[in-house]
Design a protein that fits this description.
The complex is a heterodimer.
Chain A (H helix, E strand, L loop, with lengths): L7 H14 L3 H17 L4 H5 L23
Chain B lengths: L2 E3 L2 H8 L6 H11 L2 E5 H10 L4 H13 L2 E4 L3 H10 L7 H13 L3 E5 L4 E6 L5 E3 L3
Parallel strand pairs in B: 1-2, 2-3
Antiparallel strand pairs in B: 4-5, 5-6
The chains are: A mainly alpha, B alpha/beta.
Chain lengths: ~70, ~130
């Protein structure tokens, strides 16, 4: 559960949308955050998204016989 | 940002710190700055190969959840193509799924990680790979 505090003018606009478009404040805020995340995350590279996770664990065996791009032998 | 298809081999190399190509794999991802695209058969395959450690599998899936790999669903059209590709031996479901999805979404480059190669290659699903010319 997340609680956010909004400036009064934004809250008034949300109330307006609720009346005009029959959407709850929650619906509008969820849509806005989803849109923001999609736009922001799509600009972050696959490396940046995983640099804290890569190679943290090891099989302890150098698997030279794995294939080039598909399944290992 | 360029999109590149990825199979299980580079994914396993990224998350297995003792993999002989681990450093190469991380370096490619860092320098290319690309977006990776794959399929569920590939993710399943990678998880099986990372099953030496449930933490490694957890890290891999967490990265997927963050959007490190865009995982595309396979529909009837892709399955039909996979069946066609399955008529030739040896059959590899992961690679066949990438071939099928490539034709659907128009991403033609595949990340090839091997002894002599660590780059995005243009994929010709009749069998040949050639260096991608942008």
């Amino acid at each position: 559960m997340l609680t956010i505090r909004l400036p009064e003018d934004i809250e008034m606009q949300l109330d307006f949308l609720r009346v005009v478009e029959h959407k709850s404040k929650t619906d509008v805020i969820q849509a806005a955050i989803t849109e923001y995340l999609e736009r922001h995350m799509s600009s972050v590279s696959a490396f940046e998204l995983g640099k804290d996770l890569f190679g943290r664990f090891a099989s302890s065996s150098s698997l030279q016989n794995r294939s080039t791009f598909g399944r290992g032998m | 940002m360029k999109s590149v298809l990825v199979g299980p081999r580079p994914l396993v190399a990224l998350f297995d710190g003792s993999d002989s190509r681990h450093a190469q794999a991380v370096d490619f991802l860092k320098t290319s700055g690309c977006r990776l695209v794959s399929t569920w058969p590939v993710v399943t395959d990678a998880c099986n190969q990372l099953s030496f450690s449930h933490e490694a599998v957890h890290d891999f899936l967490s990265w997927c959840e963050r959007g490190g790999v865009r995982i595309l669903d396979l529909g009837a059209r892709e399955i039909e193509r996979i069946i066609e590709l399955g008529r030739s031996e040896p059959f590899d479901l992961s690679m066949a799924s990438l071939a099928a999805i490539s034709e659907t979404v128009g991403v033609k480059e595949l990340w090839v990680l091997g002894k002599e190669s660590n780059q995005a290659m243009e994929l010709d699903f009749d069998g040949a790979l050639s260096p991608y010319q942008a």
